[in-house]
Write a structure and sequence with these properties.
Elements: E1 6-9, H1 18-33, H2 39-43, H3 50-57, H4 67-85, H5 95-106, E2 110-114, H6 120-126, E3 135-137, H7 150-159, E4 166-170, H8 173-181, E5 185-188, E6 200-201, H9 207-213
Parallel strand pairs: 1-2, 1-4, 2-3, 4-5, 5-6
Helix pairs in contact: 1-4, 3-4
The structure holds 6-O-phosphono-beta-D-glucopyranose and magnesium ion (MG).
The site of 6-O-phosphono-beta-D-glucopyranose (BG6) has 18 residues, from helix 3.
InterPro entries: B-phosphoglucomutase_hydrolase, Beta-PGM, Beta-PGM-like, HAD-like_sf, HAD-SF_hydro_IA, HAD_sf, PGP-like_dom2
Pfam family, one: Hydrolase
Site (Important for catalytic activity and assists the phosphoryl transfer reaction to Asp8 by balancing charge and orienting the reacting groups): 115, 146
Length: 217
């Protein structure tokens, strides 16, 4: 039986549904620029940085933009995104996620966030989890976004747990790859549920309890 001492959660699309807000904000920018963008393209943006996401979106653009213009576009998208985040509250944290986190904590499992987002701490505040996790590592602290394992390795280091004793929970293919490259087992949710590289394929968040207590192999 595998014994995990800690869990590192991705944020957007795992703890809360900010992945839907990322889509809406990118869609607004893409429409303004006249660039085709849909949910399938959006799935390629899960887990990767803001600037890398923009480069993927601009693959469908007929125009070539300077770095300065691209930074302005990324900033514009972030403003649209922040307008959506402002409306978030603890009501945006599902009972399933909150109850599961509480149970995991109660049974002594260390809990961390490993997110590529520079807005992660703000989102955690909005949904009432500002001081909840044992460690939070976000896009402001890393040099390389997922699929590089940097964010998860730093989170595990802050928890004081080796990667082989930590489980990573992800909704992004890039995040599952980052976990595996860092020596972690991964649980895939949502878009990443079907990933062949995930050890566990979750339909519901509370399945994590059985994994941690050893009731599920
Ligand atoms: C990740 C999202 O969590 O954060 C990506 O899955 C996003 O889609 C990335 O691009 C960066 O987010 P932000 O908030 O710094 O623009
Ligand atoms: Mg995600």
């Amino acid at each position: 039986m595998k014994h995990y001492q800690g869990i590192i959660f991705d944020l957007d699309g795992v703890i809360c549904h900010t992945d839907a807000y990322h889509y809406l904000a990118w869609k607004k920018l893409a429409d303004r620029l006249g660039v085709y963008f849909d949910k399938q393209i959006n799935n390629r943006l899960r887990g990767i940085s803001r600037m890398e996401s923009l480069d993927i979106i601009l693959e469908n653009s007929k125009n070539v933009y300077t770095d300065a213009e691209k930074h302005e576009f990324a900033e514009e998208k972030n403003e649209y995104y922040r307008q959506l985040l402002v409306q978030m509250s603890p009501a945006d944290l599902s009972a399933d996620v909150k109850n599961t986190l509480d149970i995991l904590r109660k049974i002594g499992c260390k809990l961390a966030i490993g997110s590529s987002s520079k807005n992660a701490r703000y989102i955690l505040e909005r949904i009432g989890l500002g001081h909840y996790f044992d460690a939070v590592v976000d896009g402001n602290e890393i040099q390389h976004s997922k699929p590089d394992p940097e964010v998860f390795l730093l989170a595990a280091q802050r928890l004081g747990i080796v990667s082989s004793s930590c489980l990573v929970v992800e909704d992004a293919a890039a995040g599952i790859e980052a976990a595996v490259r860092g020596g972690f087992d991964a649980a895939g949710l949502g878009d990443a549920r079907v990933s062949p590289f995930a050890k566990y394929h979750l339909i519901q968040f509370d399945e994590l309890i059985d994994i941690i207590t050893g009731n599920r192999k």
